Structures are given as C-alpha cells and as structure tokens.
Amino acid sequence: MHIGFIGLGNMGAPMARNLLKAGHQLSVFDLSEAAVGSLVEAGATAHSPAEIATGDAELIITMLPAAAHVKAVYLGDDGLLARVRPGVRLIDCSTIDPHSAREVAEAARAHGNPMLDAPVSGGTGGAAAGTLTFMVGGATEDFAFAQPILAAMGKNIVHCGAAGNGQVAKVANNMLLGISMIGVAEAMSLGVALGMDAKTLAGVINTSSGRCWSSDTYNPFPGVIETAPAARGYSGGFGSDLMLKDLGLATEAAKQVRQPVILGALAQQLYQAFSAQGHGGLDFSAIINQYRKGDDL
Ligand code: NAD
Q1: What pairs with residue 26 in β-bridges?
Q2: Which residue ranges make up each domain of the chain?
Q3: How crowded is residue 229: how many other Cβ atoms within 10 Å of its Cβ?
Q4: Closest Cα to atom 29, ligand 1: which residue?
Q5: Residues 5-29, buried b or exposed e (16+ Cβ, 10 A)?
Q6: What is 2-163's CATH number?
Q7: Pair 142, 152: CB distance under 8 Å
Q8: Which ligand 1 atom is nearest residue 239's CA?
Q9: Domain at 168-296, CATH from 1.10.3210.10, 1.10.1040.10, 1.20.1640.10, 3.60.15.10
Q10: How far is the CA of 278 from the centre of ligand 1 (A)?
C-alpha cells in the first residue's frame, strides 16, 4: 500500500522503517532534513505535506510530539485536511489528550476522511523491534482496515472503542505507571534505609502482593535488574520529561470530566520538581533519587 508518514523522530523513524520492511511504499516528511534523508536511504520517497496530501497515498500516518503539532499538521490553514482527498484514511499515533484527538477526528470525519487515534506503548526499543502496543480509538470498520498495517509495527493492536479512546487508554496506563514507579521507589528506599539488601527486598516484593512491572521488570534501585536503566545511570529508556508530559495529559483530561486523580496529580508534581532540578532527560525510574540518602547513592 502507498502510505504517507509524517513525523520521523525517535519513534516515527523506526516505525516507518518497519512499514518499508513489510513491503509498503512510503512518502515521508519531517521538519528535520536529516530524519527524512535517513528514511530515503532506507527506500522511502521525500515529499512535502501538501504533496503527501494530494498524492495517491491511501493512508497517512502521523507521529508528532504533542497536540499543538497534531492540530497544526491536520487543521492548519495549509494542513492535511485542507488538501487531502476525501476517503484517504488517517491515523495519528502521537500521544495527545483525548479531547484534542476527538476534535481532530471529528474534523476529519466531516471532511470525509476516516481517522483513528493509535498511540503506542513500548518505547523506542519496541518501535525498532516492531513489538509496540497500539491503543486504537475509532470506528470498528476503520480499525479492521488499519489492523494489518499496524501489525507491521506492533505486536498488540487493541481496539479501545470510539475516537479518542486510544488516548484514554494511554493516559490511564501511563498515569498508573508513573504512580507505581514512585511507589516502588519509595518502598525500595525505605527497605534499604531500614537495613535490607535491595536485591533481596525486590525478590520478596516480586513474589508478594507489592509486585508490579515497575518492581519486577524495571526496578529503579541500582543493581537489582541488570537490564534496567537503573543499571546504567538512568540513561536511555523512557525520559522523565515524557512521563511528565503524559501525567500532564492525564491530569488535564481528568479536569475536563471532574474526575479526581489525587495520586496522578501528586506524581505529576514530583516529576515536575524532578524536571525543574534539571533531570528531565534521565529515565523516569531515576525519580528514586528524590528518596535516596547521599550515603547510599
Ligand atoms: P520526537 O521528538 O523524537 O519526534 C517527533 C518528530 O516530529 C521530530 O522528528 C520532529 O521534527 C517532527 N515534527 C514536529 N513538528 C512537525 C511538523 N509540523 N511536521 C512534520 N514533522 C514534525 O518524538 P518521539 O519520541 O518520536 O515521540 C513521538 C510521539 O510518541 C510523542 O507524542 C510521544 O509522547 C510518543 N511516545 C514516545 C515514546 C518514546 O519512548 N519516545 C513512547 C511512546 C509514545
């Protein structure tokens, strides 16, 4: 299939490569020429957004930083919806707030373009390996069309309901992830401060009722899990500023429906303070450094 792909960053570039590997024809655009150049080397063709919109692509996928970029690319005066043929399918894989996702999907629907929101989980490793989880919002028949294409980039493709619900699933999951990481950081730090060996404590937690992904797969205490960012100075992984962004989306979305997210808001403030201290580039498990005393760092 001929697919347009806009947004070739840390996630979009490896996703686009996997579409090429699956045999799709790709027309790509990014503000960064280097990002476009590297995809062209892999077999894609470079085009402007206007060329992608007016070309013969059956589907256009976007993977952009935040809602403002998504709105500009779709709804701007020169945006995709101003030019694209009715009937061309659209999928936005960026992580944005559910309200904006629904606004853009509704504008697309009114223009005659079926649209899905399909944010992902799995990070840059999952994007490269083609093992992402896609949380998809939109009509059932549009999901059925997109499923085999998304399967070239991911392992779990989940239909979450109507437009915007992919983003709902994403913000709910990532809010829980932020809260659970802080919980594990707090518990591990308490246990070690009270004299326990970190590995032994993690072993107990991971076979007891405190077990969760943040404890058994991504434990924030250095030395517990060899493959976790804690073992390499919290480099790589999922940046604290990205977690801060997702917690902001969760608290903003909660405000719109007057739903209390007490721990989510607290987690957001903890990551905001961490970012303000200059640590936003560290993996989000580095939040444990807010708890550890100087002598055990
Ligand atoms: P990134 O900043 O690496 O890439 C975004 C790309 O979009 C950049 O290459 C930028 O040049 C391009 N861009 C910005 N505005 C544009 C425009 N108007 N037209 C064309 N291109 C434009 O970000 P990323 O890490 O690839 O993340 C993309 C999305 O995926 C974000 O919403 C992020 O929250 C989400 N996400 C990221 C991760 C992760 O681990 N990085 C994991 C899951 C979800």
Answers
A1: 3
A2: 2-163, 168-296
A3: 21
A4: 94
A5: bbbbbebbbbbbbbbbeeebebbbb
A6: 3.40.50.720
A7: no
A8: 40
A9: 1.10.1040.10
A10: 21
- Tell me how many degrees the CA angle 32-150-68 measures, rounded to the nearest 5: 45
Six-digit token pair at 142?
């549009």
Q: Where are the beta strands (DSSP E) in 85-231?
A: 89-92, 115-117, 120-121, 132-137, 154-161
Distance (Å) from CA 123 to ligand 1 centroid: 12
pLDDT, tens digit, for every residue of 129-140? Answer: 999 999 999 999
Asked whether the beta carbons of 72 and 79 are under 8 A apart, the reply is: yes
- Same fold for the pair 2-163 and 168-296: no
Annotated catalytic residues are 170
User: How many angstroms separate the CA atoms of 38 and 10, rounded?
Assistant: 12
CB count within 10 Å of CB 181 equals 29
Taking CA atoms, 279 is separated from 96, 180, 221, in Å, by: 23, 19, 17
Q: Is 248 in the pocket of ligand 1 (CB under 6 A)?
A: no
Closest CA to 267 of 281, 256, 280, 251: 251
19 contacts 26 by C-beta, under 8 angstroms: yes
Q: Is 80 in the pocket of ligand 1 (CB under 6 A)?
A: no
pLDDT band at 247 (very low <50, low <70, confident <90, very high): very high
CA 114 to chain centre: 22
Distance CA 138, CA 116 (A): 5
Closest ligand 1 atom to 246 CA = 34
Query: Is the C-beta atom of 82 inside 6 A of ligand 1?
Result: no
- Which pLDDT tens digit goes with each residue over 36-74? 999 999 999 999 999 999 999 999 999 999 999 999 999
- pLDDT value of position 294: 64
Q: Which of 5, 8, 11 to probe ligand 1 with, by most ligand atoms within 8 A of CB?
A: 11
